[in-house]
Design a protein that fits this description.
alpha+beta; five-stranded mixed sheet; 10 helices; 43% helix; transmembrane helix; membrane
Length: 314
């Protein structure tokens, strides 16, 4: 500010000297010097403004090169790619090709369920014998979470956990406890904190297992079930827990649940499935109403008519 004030004062003095020296209308050395000085100050001011404008423009361009220019709209990121980038760093195995799926294949190929053979299933990480049940299940949770995020997009039908038979599937009571432990690990690590296994009404109507706010239908298979049971494992030595998102049933156009079955003239997919199991000698219990506790179907009794296996109370 002081420099600018001084420059203006000098300019005024020079103008005064110029006017005084030229008032007699003749040129002198004094008037020539004062005129030259005035022009010099004038051009100095002009170049100062030009230089400042150029500097400001250059600085603005460096700081924000897109200022004043239309932004290029980036194409949307594909949902599957976004999921892969966020989760894949924690997924260290192929969920579509693993021991669990290979061992489960005999059930998938032989069960009377008409959807099983063409179903798209992911499997848990290969079991590590030196780790306990909770640790082994926990190792597969990043993949399970990825499955939940993209099952609808990729039209996946289920996620499979395998349990070694000798230790965790020796009989139905041991298996029931093992199933509860698996569900508890998954529930305790629910990113939405649903805490399905902490509900007080697990064995009643209205309860459903949820993970990341997605409702799951859970089916189990074990080596101790007889051939007449719908959960028969066709000679496999291990047990399996299959998580099926309820939305997968809609993807296959499965009609709403109903206690009624047209055994002689099947009209729906549900009718055909029930008939297929009956013809295979694996008829299962069909509740008299659709309003029944879902927990009752997770671990099936050994034979038709036996008491409910209350796995949640083990």
């Amino acid at each position: 500010m002081q420099v600018k004030t001084g420059v203006k004062c000098i300019q005024l003095i020079v103008v005064f000297i110029f006017l005084y020296s030229t008032v007699s209308l003749h040129f002198s050395l004094t008037s020539l010097l004062s005129g030259t000085t005035l022009l010099g100050f004038f051009f100095l001011r002009v170049f100062e403004r030009i230089d400042r404008n150029l500097f400001n423009n250059h600085t603005t361009e460096v700081e924000n090169p897109f200022k004043g220019k239309p932004r290029i709209k980036q194409p949307p990121v594909d949902n599957a790619d976004k999921i892969d980038r966020q989760i894949s760093q924690y997924v260290t195995y192929d969920a579509t090709d693993n021991i669990a799926l290979n061992n489960f294949n005999v059930i998938k190929e032989n069960t009377p369920c008409i959807f099983a053979k063409r179903s798209k299933i992911w499997g848990s990480k290969d079991w590590e014998e030196h780790l306990g049940l909770e640790e082994n299940i926990f190792r597969s949770l990043p993949t399970f979470y990825k499955f939940i995020l993209c099952c609808e997009l990729l039209k996946l039908d289920g996620f499979l956990f395998e349990l070694p038979g000798e230790e965790y599937c020796d009989d139905i009571q041991v298996f029931a406890k093992s199933v509860k432990r698996v569900l508890k690990v998954i529930s305790n690590n629910d990113p939405e904190h649903g805490r399905s296994l902490q509900k007080s009404y697990i064995g009643k109507r209205g309860w459903v297992f949820e993970y990341n706010k997605m409702s799951m239908f859970i089916t189990t298979f074990a080596p101790f079930y007889p051939r007449t049971n719908s959960r028969y494992s066709f000679g496999t030595a291990n047990g399996f827990i299959l998580f099926q998102p309820e939305l997968s049933f809609a993807q296959h156009d499965l009609p709403p649940d109903t206690p009624r079955t047209d055994w002689n003239e099947p009209k729906t997919v549900r009718d055909r499935i029930r008939i297929a199991f009956k013809e295979a000698g694996q008829e299962y219990n069909i509740p008299e109403t659709i309003y029944y506790p879902m927990a009752h179907d997770i671990v099936k009794p050994m034979k038709h008519g036996d008491s409910v296996i209350e796995w949640w109370n083990t």
